[in-house]
Amino acid sequence: MSTTQTNKIEIIKASTSKIKDVDFDNLHFGDVFTDHLFECDFKNGEWQKPIIKPYAPFLMDPSSKVFHYGQAIFEGMKAYKDDNNDIWLFRPDENFKRFNNSATRMAMPEVPEEIFMEGLKQLLQLDEAWVQKGNGSSMYIRPFMIATGAGVMANPSDEYKFMILLSPAKAYYSGEVKVLIAEHFSRAANGGIGAAKAAGNYAAQFYPTNLANKEGFQQVIWTDDATHTKLEEAGTMNVFFRINNTLLTAPTSERILDGITRKSLIEMAKSEGINVDVRPVLVSELVEAAKNGSLKEIFGAGTAAVVSVIKGFSYQDVYYEMTPIENSYASQLKEKLTNLQNKISEDAFGWTVKV
Amino acid sequence: MSTTQTNKIEIIKASTSKIKDVDFDNLHFGDVFTDHLFECDFKNGEWQKPIIKPYAPFLMDPSSKVFHYGQAIFEGMKAYKDDNNDIWLFRPDENFKRFNNSATRMAMPEVPEEIFMEGLKQLLQLDEAWVQKGNGSSMYIRPFMIATGAGVMANPSDEYKFMILLSPAKAYYSGEVKVLIAEHFSRAANGGIGAAKAAGNYAAQFYPTNLANKEGFQQVIWTDDATHTKLEEAGTMNVFFRINNTLLTAPTSERILDGITRKSLIEMAKSEGINVDVRPVLVSELVEAAKNGSLKEIFGAGTAAVVSVIKGFSYQDVYYEMTPIENSYASQLKEKLTNLQNKISEDAFGWTVKV
Ligand SMILES: Cc1ncc(COP(=O)(O)O)c(C=O)c1O
Ligand SMILES: Cc1ncc(COP(=O)(O)O)c(C=O)c1O
């Protein structure tokens, strides 16, 4: 890893702010960006001088490797503003580590910690007016890296661009989520890149997800590609199943993203005295539990959606609808987590980091 | 599919040509591009007016879906100039069909045939001075499509760019190719996107290929991800094995690219009276055949490398070196194929198409 004096991030300020055009009460996820972005190029084996500058399109060569061979990774994280107008990050060290794990798997250079962390902190400070307070508001943060080297030889690029974008977000309301359990399609191979936040993993899911949408399901729950018997995760969420009073979720593996919401919920649930069992969860047990009434809840967990209740699932053309329950684990855990993230409750875990 | 009057491709010519700066005798694969490129945008549910214009970088929004979710596909084809200065394509209809199959799998719009075909023909005509004659020279053609829509919501883009680039190529000399048989990593999942020419499939292979390179192997032969017992394909080539006088190659599947060189060689070999067996080929048979001396040849087949002889393979830390043979199937088939493509011999299969 090369070192760079990031206390020297060059800052070019936008001449005017777009903030007055933004309707913060009616935000859609991911289509409004703040006035600035952070950028750092990798060239000649080294990270170059980082810069914060006005958000704007940039020039790419048509033969750039990202277009042809898909070297592209990203992270998704959130910042929250508390009542004192302080801005907080949630476990940013976990995103940083995962980003560099993804980089390694995609044969891309690691980003030095001071570039990643200083970049996002200074960017948040500059655009701090965009970070809204209260009521589920947050700033979605999108660090990403793409291969910018030119040439269509199928090998790793020698030039990259690391960027951070900020997009203000409201409490994510995904509507009623019904899911389809994958019987044919899959998102990850053994020995593949499923555990990396690699761009290509997501495009691969769009077609099967479109098919599910047409049948009235908003998401697919992926199963292992070899046997389709084990429940793995959803598009951008890990999944939890409550059978009687035990919370089940699949162990992470090469095929499953090691979600930060997932691992936080596991710790929180345990500290609440909930019995958590991290082990392969079979489709057959789920169906069985749905039939005999022991299946109490299903929910997804991820940065964007936080905790998303799943209302029912379909498997082999049979739809199993969940019976809504009081005091669900989903609602308890969601409240605990968001209160901690928003600094409404105390952070007993030491997960929040001040910007 | 929308229709467009592509006889009306707008053409903006470069003011000067870069051709005089190109050393055609010392070309590296894929790093020199001709003066022009073809471009057509998809917007508002329709393909827009196609254009041929000077090769140049273009503007992309930092939140473009291709950067974040990897919607990107491509094709690889070649054009050849014969002694009458006519330019010929090899089975372009196959590339066109495969391109749209890839598009469907990646939830991208199909490209209309007249845009794809007229685009590449008119581009080749405009840059025809760049298409060199003889001695293994060809023009490598790279049609590709990327998602240009802005926004970081994980769903398909509603805007795309289809482009064609041209890169002059010499006979591809890959050096001595030793391969490693994959025991842990893999390139494709059952129910995944291995059969699509999706950008993300290639980046996924770079890291394991780098590891193989470090051990002295140029390529990896991928095996099925569930059991690692079946031989599938290499990075950008399908693979053939000759055991005694039978030529073996894996059947295409969801995990394997349906290579045009592969299917052409199968037909040619059959018409030569060679016994071809398309069936799953086990790693264990390969090892067994290498040990008992019945393994005569291994070679890869693909547009870029044409036919590439594999000198030896490693499996479970044992290296098996091939004994070079006279009149190999690889050399016979390569000669037949390249003579047909270059219009040196007659095209009994009807595979060549004049530009
Ligand atoms: C495939 C996938 N699984 C799970 C998650 C949840 O991870 P996290 O809780 O770290 O956001 C994500 C991402 O956001 C994801 O992309
Ligand atoms: C993964 C893969 N396999 C095989 C091939 C060979 O296909 P073709 O002969 O059509 O070039 C290619 C591409 O060029 C490829 O990318």
UniProtKB/TrEMBL annotation, chains A, B:
Cofactor: pyridoxal 5'-phosphate
Keywords associated with the record: Amino-acid biosynthesis, Aminotransferase, Branched-chain amino acid biosynthesis, Pyridoxal phosphate, Transferase
Enzyme class, first EC level, given as a word: transferase
Pfam families: Aminotran_4
SUPFAM superfamilies, per the entry: D-aminoacid aminotransferase-like PLP-dependent enzymes (SSF56752)
Alphabetical GO biological process terms: isoleucine biosynthetic process; L-leucine biosynthetic process; L-valine biosynthetic process
Pathway: Amino-acid biosynthesis; L-isoleucine biosynthesis; L-isoleucine from 2-oxobutanoate: step 4/4; Amino-acid biosynthesis; L-leucine biosynthesis; L-leucine from 3-methyl-2-oxobutanoate: step 4/4; Amino-acid biosynthesis; L-valine biosynthesis; L-valine from pyruvate: step 4/4
Protein task: Acts on leucine, isoleucine and valine.
PANTHER family: BRANCHED-CHAIN-AMINO-ACID AMINOTRANSFERASE, SUBGROUP IIII AMINOTRANSFERASE
Family: Belongs to the class-IV pyridoxal-phosphate-dependent aminotransferase family.
Protein name: Branched-chain-amino-acid aminotransferase
Source species of the chain: Flavobacterium alvei
